[in-house]
Design brief:
two-stranded antiparallel ribbon, about 10% strand, five-stranded mixed beta sheet, 10 helices, about 350 residues, rod-shaped, alpha+beta
Length: about 350
């Protein structure tokens, strides 16, 4: 039972009690019909009101306490026991109420009048309580369905994100090992340094595996090792310039979101001493801009677009927001939302 349900219990019990006992208030009019048979007594009315309200609260509590009391019969679909026990509770409350009432305030001058009054009020109260119980059960069922749908949706999103993230590793591993093979043949000493930075990259990937968001500071720190690998391979034909203010360094982006963009730029553009590949990373209106000069290779690279498609899908799943991609005659630009 949550806090909102407890409030519904109290408000419903109060309103039902007020409705079924409102007729007694007509005895305040000394010329009315009710006043001929019952003289208004504030103490007697208060007792009836409180007892009726306690009866309503009791029925609600017995029928809506999960795994306890009468709700066990309902949950196990033992409906004959459920209705029988409810009927016994109602009859017991009517008899007990009329007896206590007679003991405190004396015998009613009309024979059987008091118990008939309790029977009428409590039967009407029971019918309205049954409606309230049904409404609360429908609310619970709806809430459970919403929670289940949310859990299923969350599990689906997590699975999709994990699958997309796992695609990065074999894709990156294939490219880096191909580059390492060439460096080993040309410069074995440089290959050792290459392997060192490569281990840092995989360490970052494993340590943050499963964490979808990281600070921009951590992602840029990881990018240093990756750009070192590119620099070792391309030497002076590759440049990267990063200009991020300290105010934004603690904002978040998706884990491993910058590396595929750098990889994409290197894969699809020429890099020569006369026309070096230049990549710029800077912030603009709460977007992280990754821009490279556009000088596409003549041959079409296999697997083009995998990195960008992957990254866009990850942002859609994580933040319901897509990345922006723009291409001019001079530049290829990708904008990532800062979170």
């Amino acid at each position: 039972m949550n806090k909102n349900e407890r409030k519904i219990y109290i408000y419903s019990a109060f309103l039902i009690t007020l409705m079924v006992n409102s007729a007694k208030l007509m005895a305040l009019n000394s010329d009315g019909i009710i006043a001929r048979y019952w003289q208004f007594n504030i103490e007697e009315y208060s007792f009836q009101f409180l007892y009726n309200m306690l009866f309503c609260l009791l029925l609600l509590y017995l029928n809506l306490s999960d795994g306890k009391f009468l709700s066990v019969f309902r949950e196990n679909k033992q409906y004959w026991k459920f209705y029988l026990c409810n009927s016994l509770v109602i009859v017991a409350a009517i008899v007990l109420g009329s007896l206590i009432h007679s003991f405190i305030f004396g015998i009613f001058h009309l024979p059987g009048g008091r118990i008939r009054g309790y029977f009428a009020r409590f039967l009407l109260s029971s019918i309205m309580i049954a409606v309230v119980i049904r409404l609360i059960l429908l609310m619970r069922e709806s809430r459970k369905k919403d929670m289940l749908n949310e859990q299923l949706n969350s599990a689906y999103l997590q699975t999709q994100l994990q699958l997309l993230q796992e695609q990065l590793n074999p894709h990156f591993l294939f490219n880096t090992l191909s580059s390492l093979s060439a460096i080993v043949m040309e410069n074995p000493g440089l290959a050792q340094n290459y392997i060192l930075h490569l281990s840092k990259i995989f360490r970052y990937t494993l340590v943050h595996s499963g964490n979808n968001l990281v600070t921009l500071e951590k992602e840029l720190e990881h990018l240093k090792s990756y750009t070192q690998l590119i620099t070792m391979r391309l030497e002076n034909t590759f440049q990267i310039h990063i200009n991020i203010s300290k105010d934004l360094i603690q904002m978040q982006i998706l884990h491993l979101s910058l590396q595929p963009l750098i990889e994409n730029a290197v894969k699809h553009n020429r890099a020569t001493l006369s026309d070096p590949l230049i990549i710029e990373i800077y912030e603009e209106n709460r977007w992280l801009i990754i821009r490279n000069n556009l000088q596409p290779t003549i041959s079409k690279t296999e697997g083009a677009g995998i990195g960008l498609t992957n990254l866009n899908e990850r942002y859609k799943l994580q933040n319901q927001q897509e990345i922006e991609i723009h291409q001019t005659t001079e530049y290829f630009i990708v904008k990532l939302p800062l979170l």
